[in-house]
């Protein structure tokens, strides 16, 4: 055991030394550009444009018929985030600093309940849309990757549902 401890310590020191060197070096431009959203200068995407693209993608992929259009429109509109979400998030960010721990926990609990209600609304809309599809369309819809069809690339926790 006496031999293992100095070996572990030297490994930790070496790791810290290399880690410090990596931190001291500037980030490559490509890597830095990939993290723009962390600095807040990510371009804002128009929700209406995104909804239109989602609807067109579903029309094309599922080969929807004209009589399925109302179900598609209801489904796509139900997936839109609340219009004031961004404003609420900004306002809450400033308020959190002045909150006590129990107040922050209550706020988190309310936020979780809101997210659960949003999920229930979106799940119900998805099931209503799904019920309007033919068996072949259901199979195609089932094969679509979740989170906006990104296949795990940048899906994150935003967005929702299929399509």
UniProtKB/TrEMBL annotation:
Compositionally biased intervals (Basic and acidic residues): 33-48, 83-96
Swiss-Prot/TrEMBL keywords: Signal
Signal among keywords: yes
Region (Disordered): 27-48, 75-103, 136-163
InterPro entries: LTXXQ
UniProt signal peptide: 1-29
Protein name as it appears in the record: Spy/CpxP family protein refolding chaperone
Organism: Phenylobacterium ferrooxidans
């Amino acid at each position: 055991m006496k031999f293992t401890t100095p070996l572990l310590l030297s490994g930790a020191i070496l790791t810290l030394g290399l880690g410090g060197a990596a931190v001291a070096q500037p980030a490559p431009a490509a890597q830095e550009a990939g993290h723009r959203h962390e600095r807040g200068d990510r371009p804002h995407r128009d929700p209406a444009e995104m909804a239109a693209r989602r609807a067109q993608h579903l029309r094309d992929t599922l080969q929807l018929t004209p009589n399925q259009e109302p179900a598609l429109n209801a489904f796509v509109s139900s997936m839109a985030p609340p219009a004031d979400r961004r404003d609420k998030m900004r306002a809450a960010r400033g308020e959190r600093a002045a909150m006590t721990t129990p107040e922050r926990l209550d706020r988190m609990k309310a936020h979780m309940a809101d997210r659960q209600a949003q999920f229930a609304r979106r799940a119900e809309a998805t099931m209503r849309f799904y019920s309007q599809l033919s068996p072949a369309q259901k199979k195609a819809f089932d094969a679509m990757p979740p989170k906006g069809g990104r296949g795990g690339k940048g899906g994150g926790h935003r967005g929702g549902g299929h399509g």
